[in-house]
Amino acid sequence: MRSKGLFLLSLLILGFVSNAQLETDADFKRTVYKNEFTAGVMFHSRGYGLNVRRMYYRTGYRKAGFEIDMVNIRHPKEVKYPNRNFLNTTQNFVYGKLNSLFSIRTGFTSERILIDKTDQGTISINWLVSGGASFGLLKPVYLQILSDDGGTPRLLTERYDPAVHDYQEIYGQAPFFTGISETKLVPGAYLKSGLSFDYNFLDDKVATLEVGGLVDYFFGEVPIMHDTKNYQIWWQIYLTFNIGTKWN
Description:
three-stranded antiparallel sheet; elongated; mainly beta
């Protein structure tokens, strides 16, 4: 955890030592736009999701705006496997999983160009820092349980209870939306920092590969798994592919 914290801190320090400028150093004539919108997919060390950003250019080298992340967050002890007692006819499930965790992050983003494009077709390197609210959504896990009460085997859909349900009788995980009305909100905050590589050939389009680190902090331990340590702080390394457009 200490090494992850140092990695995130070093990214933050790097961003603040770069000064904003009013002009660009590109060899070709680059238009400085006022607006930008991007959307893309995010892969992180605890799952995957989507990212959307609305940015406003402050100078030729700096922009700021807002972002929304919609992601799932998995516990490190989550392992999916089928129940072999049912001859591989079951759906995979995570034994001991009490709840599924999803997060909707909404926050402010600041980004600046560290290395500008020297020509069309080259790559610019940007530095960004984001932070804001992280709304955790905790959805209970429902399973399909094989019951032979009355002598006739049948499948029942029940919320997983480790005190009641034994591994041998679990047929598989119930459909995703089962129990969604019982979802609980777990508020928190997040901080993200990374480097963005813009490789799009057209000046008014955006295509970036972004890599960095982030942390979600929830105001209380998040109970995902039974009989193991659950966490309040979730460190992650992420990779995002975004595409979008610029305009005045």
